[in-house]
Design a protein that fits this description.
The chain is of the alpha+beta class and 82 residues long. It is 33% helix and 18% strand.
C-alpha cells in the first residue's frame, strides 16, 4: 500500500492511478505541460499535462474514476468513506 494512503481502498486506487498514468504517458509520446506554477507551499511545481491530441491527463484520470475535482474550498473528497 502507498505510504500516504489513509485506507486500503485509497491505496489500491493510488496504485491503479499510477499504472493508468504510466500507460497514458507510454501511449502519448508528446506531452505538453501548461499552466505551471508553484504550489501554495512553494515545495513543488503544479501543471496541467496534455497530450498532443489535446486531452488532459487530469480529465482522463477523473473520467476513469481515479480523481475528483477539488477547487481548494471545503472538505476534500474522502476516498475511504465512499
Amino acid at each position: 500500500m502507498p505510504q500516504h494512503a489513509k485506507c486500503e481502498k485509497e491505496g489500491q486506487l493510488a496504485l491503479k492511478a499510477k499504472a493508468f498514468t504510466n500507460d497514458y504517458m507510454e501511449h502519448h509520446k508528446q506531452l505538453i505541460i501548461t499552466e505551471t506554477e508553484w504550489d501554495k507551499y512553494g515545495g513543488r511545481i503544479v501543471g496541467n499535462i496534455k497530450s498532443n491530441d489535446n486531452n488532459s491527463l487530469t480529465d482522463e484520470l477523473i473520467k476513469a474514476g481515479f480523481g475528483k475535482a477539488y477547487k481548494g474550498k471545503g472538505a476534500k473528497p474522502n476516498w475511504c468513506r465512499n
